């Protein structure tokens, strides 16, 4: 059975994304060339340029996928919790735990802001992790667990604190120990909102 052109395009896109993600995570953005990505993915450079206009364009796509995946990890952790409050804490922990994963560290926290710029990085974050945080805080206010207050500034404050902690964890010589210390510090901060 022959594959349609659409299936071929999707397969090429998946191969490029998976290969670039692995190579960017292993070597960092600056040490990976488009030629290497294309060869490793088993596609021509022309096929790569059919999907992405530049290395930065490909990286932005990969960064969006990584941020989406982190957002999904947060949502799964929060959804598995017995209530909204422990869901908020589980989601925060899932975000910070992701910061201890080498792939997330390299792509999302080290290269991401430098390659796409802080504003684009924040927009991608707003579509994934920050969106889940806003939903969790809104639910807690609706349930009466948190006092009603403007959600957007609260999301920015908590997200900023956690993003800074995530970057710190990405540079930490002992991220697992520092993750525990970070959660021990973050939990009372969030408790103060009750």
UniProtKB/TrEMBL annotation:
Domain (HTH tetR-type): residue spans on this chain: 10-70
Keyword Transcription regulation: yes
Coiled coil: none
Binding region for DNA: 33-52
Pfam families, per database record: TetR_C_41 (PF21351), TetR_N (PF00440)
Family matches, as InterPro entries: Homeodomain-like_sf, HTH-type_TetR-like_transc_reg, HTH_TetR, Rv0078-like_C
Domain of life from the UniProt record: Bacteria
Keyword flag Nucleotidyltransferase: no
Single GO MF annotation: DNA-binding transcription factor activity
Keywords noted in UniProt: DNA-binding, Transcription, Transcription regulation
PANTHER family: HTH-TYPE TRANSCRIPTIONAL REGULATOR BETI, HTH-TYPE TRANSCRIPTIONAL REGULATOR RUTR
Protein name: TetR family transcriptional regulator
Gene source species: Amycolatopsis thailandensis
